[in-house]
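Researcher: I'm preparing a figure for a lab meeting and need a structural model of a single chain. I don't have an experimental structure, so a prediction will have to do for now. The sequence is pasted below. Please return the structure as tokens so I can convert it later.
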Amino acid sequence: QVQLVESGGGLVQPGGSLRLSCAASGSFFSIYSMNWYRQAPGKERAWVAAIFSGNTTNYADSVKGRFTISRDKNTVYLQMNSLKPDDTAVYYCNVDETSGQYWGQGTQVTVSS
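Model: Understood. Here is the structure written out token by token.
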């Protein structure tokens, strides 16, 4: 069983930055990827970024060049720069591991002046 705890959300002005963290704990065998998703009000949950076991990264077009995903052991980060109101959402951490997929509880990010 894997537990994920996210932190770092909050209110930020357009153009500002935030850094999200997600700490994974528990028993896991092999992590294939660690991901960030987000869900804006009235919309479906959408994939944002991924980091794979070899540290290869991939990003949704909407955040490419502004967001950076990184990993330090079992903690994954999402550095978000040049934030826009459209980035407002609940951000979820996801781990794809041998025993299945796991989700964090979500952290709210609000971009507003």
